[in-house]
Every structure is written in structure tokens, then in C-alpha cells.
Amino acid sequence: MDQSTLQPAKTAPGAAQQFTAFTPYESTSGEEYMSPAQIAHFQKILEDWRRELMAEVDRTVQHMQMENVNYSDPNDRASLETDMGLELRARDRERKLIRKITQALDRIKAGEYGYCESCGVEIGLRRLEARPTATLCIDCKTLEEKREKQIAQD
């Protein structure tokens, strides 16, 4: 595999892909963080990802309409309902992800993309490429996860 292109993460059929294929951004010497070129890079990643997810939603709707068969065998019916349940859960996760992608695109328009919501520091290019919807820097995210873990233990 060519190291310059990231491929979609391997996921279960019907599950949301974690990454879209893109070429990692190469900063030039002295380039300002969240320069217009960087913003355009992340906007393209987010828009492509959203487009892929929306296409998957459309395929699911078409599939469910075609699969609307009334099976007389209870086992076949149970299998179909289980498959549809898994498919709907995957689409629900994707719906939430689409919302996060839309919020990230809104942050780009507002000039707030790439900066931590909590402390205001730069999130970082590589972290944003790994998680384009990230809203927290790694330190704030780590603290949030520790708090969540403590709350869960109480």
C-alpha cells in the first residue's frame, strides 16, 4: 500500500467507515496553523466523508424497501429482522457521525475549526486527520475520558 494515501478502515459490513481516503497534508516551512490550504484540505475530507455516509444511508433505504418480504418461515423472518436491526443501528451511528461532520464544517465556516473547545490550543493536523470531527486537544480529551471513567465507577 502506498504510504501517502490512507485507505478506509476495515469495518463490519454496514458499519460506518472511520476514515476516508485522502493524502495527508504536508505543511510547508513556516506555514501558519489552519492556513487556507489546511482549511481546504479538512473541508474536502469532511465533505467527502459526509457524502460517503449519505450514499450509504440511501443504499440502506433502497435495500430495506427491496427486502420488505413477508417470510412465512419464522426463522427466516427472525434472521431478516436481526439483520435489519443491525443495519438500523449502524445507520443511527452514521446519522450521529453526519451531525458531527456538519458541526465541524460549521466550525470551519466560523473560523473555529482546529482549536480546542475547552482550552483554545491547536488540536494538531495529525490528530484532525485521524479524527476530523475532533473538538478537543489530546490533553483535554484525556482529562474528559478520565472524568467519564471516574463517574462510571461511582
Describe the 3D structure.
- This protein has four helices and no strands.
- It is 58% helix and 0% strand.
- It is mainly alpha-helical.
- The protein has helices spanning 36-66, 74-110, 125-130, 138-153.
- The chain starts with 35 loop residues before the first helix and ends with a helix.
- The protein has two domains: 34-113, Four Helix Bundle (Hemerythrin (Met), subunit A) (Up-down Bundle); 115-153, no CATH class.
- It holds the Pfam family DksA_N.
- Keywords: Coiled coil, Cytoplasm, Metal-binding, Zinc, Zinc-finger.
Q: In a nutshell, what does this entry contain?
A:
A zinc finger (dksA C4-type) spans 116-140. The chain has 154 residues and is an all-alpha fold.
Can you identify the CATH superfamily of the largest domain? DksA, coiled-coil domain
Q: Tally of extended strands?
A: 0
CATH architecture of the largest domain: Up-down Bundle
The tally of helices reads 4
Biggest beta sheet summary: none
Distance between the termini: 46 Å
Q: How do the strands and helices of this protein lay out in sequence?
A:
Layout: H1 36-66, H2 74-110, H3 125-130, H4 138-153
Features of the shown structure:
Four Helix Bundle (Hemerythrin (Met), subunit A); flat; 154 residues; mainly alpha; 2 domains
